[in-house]
Task: structure prediction
Amino acid sequence: MLQNHVALVTGGSRGIGKGIVEHFAEKGAKVAFTYNNSSEKANAIVAHCKSKFGSEIKAYKSNAAKFDDTEELIKNVLTDFGQLDCLINNAGITQDTLLMRMSEDQWDEVIRINLKSVFNLTKASLRTFLKAKKGSIINMSSVVGINGNAGQANYSASKAGIIGFSKSIAKELGSRNIRCNVIAPGFIETEMTEKLGEEMVESWRNQIPLKRGGLPQDIAQLSAFLASDESSYITGQVISICGGMNM
Ligand code: NAP
Result:
């Protein structure tokens, strides 16, 4: 499905991003991925994919929130891989608290890392996609970007912003054969959700019609489909993967 395909995944060192990186490597893609701090974890993923799948894969330390970093990143990826077919904007953080207690820094940091990063990476990749006359951009939103969530005004706003951005980009770039879709995960069990504690996690699981949290693999499989030519007539869509939470 993804043979000879070059994908760039932001935040590939842990959780959902790691799941996407490993799945793409298994499917024969050449994978570039970023991390912000977790260099040991990133190196372990590279070693694993090289030995298990014989992958062409490289990890880059790059802060997705910094415009200059992302321009440099795209240059390096093109030098190393020669092309770019798919961009997956996955890097994200939470800084959850009620609005009453939310500081300006907590607002700014979440918007910068979750939303501005999507602008940065998309803008930096655009020339490459235009030249190739094709490209697939996949942006990681969340069901709370659709529904909102108490205690997550900053995070929900960043994830709703991603949806508006992606639909606009899909309209702007459709005539150039550049597609842009959004995945809205529900409750996917990763380090991000571990912070919530077992009691909270169990109550989330009970509210889900399929009665379980999702796995990074669930997101990775849809990402592979959206990256591939099998989805060549799909753009501007928001697809929830949430075990039926969002109906
Ligand atoms: P996670 O386990 O906390 O992993 C976050 C990843 O993002 C890590 O690889 C981290 O790199 C990277 N990252 C953080 N800040 C970065 C920055 N400034 N520049 C580059 N990379 C950065 O999170 P996750 O649960 O896998 O979530 C992945 C995405 O899915 C996020 O956008 C999240 O909002 C979204 N999502 C998750 C869920 C869920 O239930 N888990 C639900 C809906 C949406 P380091 O390891 O170097 O820190």
